[in-house]
Design a protein that fits this description.
alpha/beta, Rossmann fold, eight-stranded mixed sheet, 9 helices, 8 strands, 33% helix
């Protein structure tokens, strides 16, 4: 069961399937990332990404080993680095390369869909709130696997399909009422079973997937949408349909307030975060026993006599 936390911020997207089809406009998403890198007060919008990076590093700390050479894929402004710096042991990381598609990051520039690294290059690859904007996820995950040394680890976090359900519902009702149809105003995200299947089908071993729900309170729906833009998490679907009209936007905000408002008048927004860990194959890793190799049958175990000994 996910851990539900609530972050209160004062005034200051459905599910997807995996294929090579182009869902997101990567040029638009790159421009959005560049815009937020240049935006005045950009740090005011980093609270969610900082929190998710902190939780990702918490999971990394559970792995009792060192990683001499690590990559932060889709680093943004360095959320993972900030969390690593707060950890006394640096999560076992000795050297970190930061990589993002936004030009203004002043680090290594690369597209998550076309990784420029040689095979078996990194001991650890991390990615926090970046890969859910990739079109061909199976191909990207295979590239990540190829870039890892044997027994190397991938630790990632993406937004899940239950994110922003309140905003989705408000827009659906507003569009039906004012436009007579529905347009995709929020990008689709993966769900938990798909994350596990993606890791396994890409060739990762010893895979684990878990999820958190983070609830953030906003003064109103307009502040939420402004913050999504400030985070670079606004819509980037290739075929957006008709742009949202002012009438539908006002209706969606009103519906959001009526359906979900807190007693103090603020509105909650739920973000589902899916965390993934997978390992590149190595002969030292535990493997399931060959089918039929057991020396005892479950039938024999079930019929065994249990003797109780009194102390």
């Amino acid at each position: 069961m996910g851990i539900t936390n609530r972050i209160v911020r004062q005034q200051l997207l459905g599910r997807r399937s995996f294929s090579s089809a182009v869902i997101f406009d990567r040029a638009v998403k790159r421009q959005q990332r560049n815009n937020i890198a240049l935006r005045a007060g950009a740090a005011d919008y980093e609270y969610l990404k900082d929190e998710v990076a902190r939780r990702l590093i918490d999971r990394l700390e559970d792995i009792d080993r060192e990683f001499p050479f690590a990559l932060d894929l889709g680093c943004g402004s360095g959320h993972i680095y900030k969390s690593l710096s707060e950890d006394e042991g640096l999560g076992g990381v000795k050297k970190l390369i930061q990589c993002d598609s936004a030009v203004e990051t002043k680090r290594l520039i690369a597209d998550e869909e076309f990784l420029p690294f040689p095979p078996q290059h990194f001991d650890l690859i991390m990615s926090s709130l970046s890969l859910h904007w990739v079109n061909d996820l199976p191909n990207t995950f295979k590239q990540i696997l190829d870039s890892l040394k044997p027994d190397g680890a991938f630790v990632g976090a993406v937004l899940g399909g239950d994110s922003l359900q309140e905003l989705r519902s408000a827009f659906i009702l507003a569009d039906q009422e004012r436009e007579g149809g529905i347009s995709p105003h929020i990008s689709p995200f993966m769900n938990v079973p798909d994350a596990g299947n993606l890791l396994v089908s890409s060739g990762f071993q010893l895979c684990t997937v878990d999820t958190d729900f983070i609830t953030v309170d906003y003064p109103d729906a307009f502040v939420l949408m402004e913050d999504l833009q400030g985070m670079g998490e606004n819509n980037a679907v290739q075929s957006k349909g008709a742009p949202v009209t002012r009438d539908s936007l006002l209706a969606a905000a009103s519906i959001y307030q009526a359906m979900y408002a807190n007693p103090d008048g603020s509105v909650p927004a739920t973000f589902q975060v899916i965390y993934m860990i997978g390992w590149s194959p190595h002969k030292s890793q535990a493997r399931p026993a060959r089918r039929g190799s057991a020396h005892k049958s479950l039938k024999d175990i079930g019929s065994a006599t249990i003797n109780h000994v009194d102390a």
